[in-house]
Inverse folding.
């Protein structure tokens, strides 16, 4: 690779000389580019996670709340032997999966319409319409749903004259499924929209030219190409549902993994146990991400 | 390759050291108790129960001492312990299930009662209690005392209940609309109910439960779980639940009933025949208080007759002194009688929140369940 | 793609239904901002502007809004910087650990907020860093980086390196090339990423509760308000934020769609 070595008119300033010097030393350039982000992420973040993991091996003095540095697996033993923790984990993962599937089903037609059917002006407005709710506070949305679902709330107001009942406080899992699907829907629509937008028209036309009907084209061309984008969106819906504790607290009496973690770290002061239980969603998410990457989701975020 | 391995080894070692030195602090030695007070500092950061630090009686205090009060609400005793451990607050209104933990953890300091003139007038029944005095050393001043009550929607629950059975009966008519306090200490409420319904368990103190007694209480609560709609820990959540009809019966604080009355929601409260758990909260000063003089000023102020009357009438609990009662009569006639302020016999049947410990404190020895086990059981109960 | 009329009608219906699902709760939030009574009961008993007076008169609300703004600005700035640096590195070079970077970068946003919060909190305490606005910004930046990173790297993938080489063949040095050639190409990706990062930081609550000292961002303030004295004041704040955000969202969308319209469709 030749470099432009002629000095530009006006003389070479310090910036230009540095830039040129860097250009000739790609590894140094790379190093400089990476120091800040890697330094931050690896040292600050991964390091913190590792410290948290180490914490899960300590135990806590029950009375004073002080952490005793006696390593052991008792927290994990407690997790594995307690049936309640299995129940909570299955419930959390189950609802996260249900929310993900629901959002994918709702989001896909909307994203498809936005990406491939709507005209450019309408598409612009639709994108704004989808982005706007991201700016309204998550907390306020959860409270709004609490009102909607409450015993004398608007949902029952519509359903009761029809002889139906909305999910009351005891139907916690159903309530959470509805509300989580609501909350994370934009996070699913946007990547699918971007993914569908990227599909070149020429592929669709070619498929038609080869004799496929529109449904076949959809099934065999569009869907496989859009699938990584769906997986990308699912990363958000799954992880956000799995880690949440505010909505379960507000809308029901069911416990999520996050509730147990939070009640142990924030309130009961048993950080080691909270850290131990927190490793469950971490492991699940890491596995999920590995699978998602293999399915090509990382290019579609 | 060798360089990389060495770097990784050093990094892990550093992390290990960091994890070891980080985390919670072991109890720091309590600071020396002041002999005399200095000038007030201008600010006061408190952790308090909802309704304990309200504008009505805070404003005169601020005007008088110049201490600007900043209150953070703790929803449960456990939250308060955690908040106090951060060292960011000057004082806390701690119930008995927090106070002993704070004392043992070194998070609160002993108080010099000579610096609190109003303490002399406090009822004898509130002085030298195990939850605020350890080894003869006083750790705070009482705010008031009261009981956890049973509340119900008068337009939905009929007839008016007089027993906790309405929230423990698995076939309850109000299944799905029953509420309970969301904290491990609620296990004591189940124990109080068992004292009356299962005397063969020989429960004498609902906070000192041995294996058989504890198991019985936990089983009762797991059974109760099937009729619970939603637990509450934020007092505003219970207000919202009773207003909307999501909850129609359950345990409550008087202050919640007072707010609902203000919102014209038809509710009524009672102390059921089996007795109840209760609380006597102590204002304690943090061992890391940055504004100790303001805190002493507050402790003296909150037990002064006018302020104590205002605070206890607002919340709905018994004042701490006769003078406080006299002032409360002016604000709300019959207040002291309603809350049995001078009735030590009554309060002998209210089981104030206390910290469960292994040492049973009687002939059984150290076989009782401690706080960690209560906490673990609560997670299991909620499911 | 045209597709059959039935299909298009079905899609349009689905979109309208979806938008209705998204917006009905938001409309309820707006209605409550004008409710007369304090209790968040249904149906609304009367209309009033008292909560608007209360919200605008509350100094804590204003302070929280400003703190949130500062935190989001700081976090977005850091995320823009780190995200672009990382995406350039990954896209342009081959090196050991290249694959893992995209993995590591997404972790902060993929792992539960409570885990990220707990981890950062114990790190700060271990190294004796006081919790303050700085730690809030650090926490937010950590999960915002991925947003910018993904947007920029997607754009870089679509950009041929040859235009930079052409620019240099024409006599520009690397700095000029960046300023006049590379930057305009990634500008809208930075804008879109920055906007989304800003929104995420602005509304974040869980990580923030672990990384804040005494500072109150708007979500923390709303949380305190709802636990202490829930009233439609919270709804007023929410409505104000939504309205304020409409402008930058629309502007950003117009800018990025103009630039992005040419890519990928042909």
């Amino acid at each position: 690779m030749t470099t432009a070595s002629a000095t530009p008119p006006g003389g070479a300033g310090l910036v230009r000389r540095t830039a040129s010097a860097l250009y000739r030393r790609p590894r140094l350039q790379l190093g400089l580019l990476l120091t800040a982000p890697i330094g931050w992420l690896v040292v600050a973040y991964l390091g913190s996670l590792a410290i948290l993991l180490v914490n899960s091996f300590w135990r806590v003095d029950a009375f004073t709340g002080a952490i005793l540095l006696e390593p052991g697996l008792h927290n994990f033993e407690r997790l594995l032997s307690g049936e309640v923790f299995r129940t909570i984990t299955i419930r959390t993962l189950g609802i996260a999966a249900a929310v993900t599937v629901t959002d994918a089903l709702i989001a896909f037609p909307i994203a498809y319409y936005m990406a491939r059917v709507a005209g450019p002006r309408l598409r612009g407005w639709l994108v704004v319409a989808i982005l706007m709710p991201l700016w309204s506070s998550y907390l306020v949305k959860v409270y709004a749903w609490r009102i909607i679902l409450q015993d004398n709330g608007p949902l029952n107001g519509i359903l009761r004259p029809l002889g139906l009942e909305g999910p009351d406080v005891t139907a916690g899992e159903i309530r959470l499924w509805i509300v989580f699907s609501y909350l994370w829907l934009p996070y699913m629509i946007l990547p699918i929209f971007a993914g569908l937008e990227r599909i070149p028209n020429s592929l669709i036309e070619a498929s038609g030219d080869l004799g496929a009907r529109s449904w076949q084209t959809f099934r065999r061309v569009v869907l496989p190409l859009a699938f990584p984008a769906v997986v990308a969106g699912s990363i958000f819906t799954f992880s956000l549902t799995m880690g949440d504790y505010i909505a379960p607290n507000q809308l029901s009496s069911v416990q999520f993994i996050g509730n147990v973690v939070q009640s142990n770290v924030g309130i009961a002061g048993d950080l080691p146990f909270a850290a131990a239980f927190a490793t469950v969603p971490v492991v699940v998410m890491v596995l999920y991400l590995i699978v998602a990457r293999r399915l090509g989701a990382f290019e579609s975020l | 390759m060798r360089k990389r391995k060495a770097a990784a080894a050093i990094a892990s070692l550093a992390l290990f050291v960091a994890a070891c030195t980080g985390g919670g602090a072991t109890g720091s030695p309590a600071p020396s108790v002041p002999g005399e007070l200095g000038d007030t500092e201008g600010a006061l950061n408190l952790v308090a129960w909802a309704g304990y630090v309200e504008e009505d009686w805070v404003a005169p205090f601020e005007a008088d001492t110049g201490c600007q009060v900043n209150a953070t609400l703790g929803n449960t005793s456990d939250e308060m312990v955690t908040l106090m451990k951060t060292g960011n607050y000057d004082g806390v209104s701690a119930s008995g299930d927090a106070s002993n933990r704070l004392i043992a953890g070194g998070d609160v300091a002993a108080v010099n009662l000579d610096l609190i003139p109003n303490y002399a007038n406090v009822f004898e029944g509130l002085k030298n209690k195990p939850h605020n005095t350890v080894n003869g050393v006083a750790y705070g001043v009482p705010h008031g005392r009261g009981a956890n009550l049973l509340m119900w929607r008068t337009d939905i629950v009929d007839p008016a209940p007089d027993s906790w059975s309405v929230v423990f009966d698995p076939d309850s008519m109000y299944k799905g609309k029953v509420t309970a306090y969301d904290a491990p200490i609620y296990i004591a409420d189940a124990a109080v109910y068992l004292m009356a319904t299962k005397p063969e368990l020989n429960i004498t103190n609902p906070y000192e439960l041995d294996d058989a007694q504890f198991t019985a209480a936990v089983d009762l609560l797991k059974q109760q779980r099937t009729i619970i709609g939603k637990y509450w820990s934020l007092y505003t959540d219970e207000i919202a639940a009773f207003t909307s009809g999501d909850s129609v019966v359950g345990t409550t604080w008087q202050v919640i009933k007072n707010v609902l009355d203000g919102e014209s929601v038809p509710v009524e409260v009672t102390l059921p025949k089996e007795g109840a758990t209760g609380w006597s909260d102590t204002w304690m000063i943090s061992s890391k208080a940055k504004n100790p003089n303001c805190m002493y000023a507050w402790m003296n102020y909150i037990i002064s007759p006018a302020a104590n009357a205002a605070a206890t009438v607002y919340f709905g609990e018994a004042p701490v002194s006769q003078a406080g009662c006299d002032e409360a009569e002016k604000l709300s006639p019959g207040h002291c009688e309603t809350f049995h302020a001078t009735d030590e016999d009554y309060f002998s049947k209210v089981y104030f929140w206390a910290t469960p410990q292994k040492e049973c404190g009687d002939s059984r020895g150290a076989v009782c369940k401690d706080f960690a086990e209560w906490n673990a059981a609560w997670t299991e109960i909620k499911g | 793609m045209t597709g059959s009329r039935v299909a298009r009608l079905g899609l349009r219906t689905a979109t309208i239904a979806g938008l209705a699902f998204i917006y009905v709760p938001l409309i309820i939030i707006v209605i409550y901002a004008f409710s007369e009574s304090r209790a968040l009961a249904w149906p609304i008993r009367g209309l009033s502007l008292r909560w608007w007076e209360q919200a605008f008169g509350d100094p804590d609300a204003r302070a929280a809004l400003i703190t949130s703004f500062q935190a989001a600005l700081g976090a977005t700035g850091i995320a823009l910087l780190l995200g672009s640096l990382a995406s350039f590195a990954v896209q342009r070079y081959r090196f050991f650990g290249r694959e893992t970077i995209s993995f590591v970068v997404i972790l902060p946003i993929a792992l539960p907020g409570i885990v990220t919060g707990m981890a950062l909190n114990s790190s700060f305490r271990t190294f004796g860093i006081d919790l303050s606005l700085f730690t809030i910004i650090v926490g937010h930046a950590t999960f915002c980086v991925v947003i910018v990173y993904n947007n920029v790297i997607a754009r870089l993938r679509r950009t041929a390196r040859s235009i930079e080489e052409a620019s240099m063949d024409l006599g520009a040095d690397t700095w000029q090339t960046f300023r006049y050639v590379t930057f305009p190409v990634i500008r809208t990706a930075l804008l879109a990423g920055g906007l989304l990062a800003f929104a995420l930081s602005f509304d974040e609550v869980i990580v923030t509760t672990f990384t804040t000292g005494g500072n109150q961002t708007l979500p923390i303030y709303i949380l305190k308000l709802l636990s202490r004295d829930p009233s439609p004041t919270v709804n007023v704040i929410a409505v104000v934020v939504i309205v304020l955000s409409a402008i930058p969202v629309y502007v950003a969308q117009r800018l990025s769609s103009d630039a992005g319209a040419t890519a990928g469709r042909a």
About this structure: Chain C touches chain A through 101 residues (CB under 8 Å).
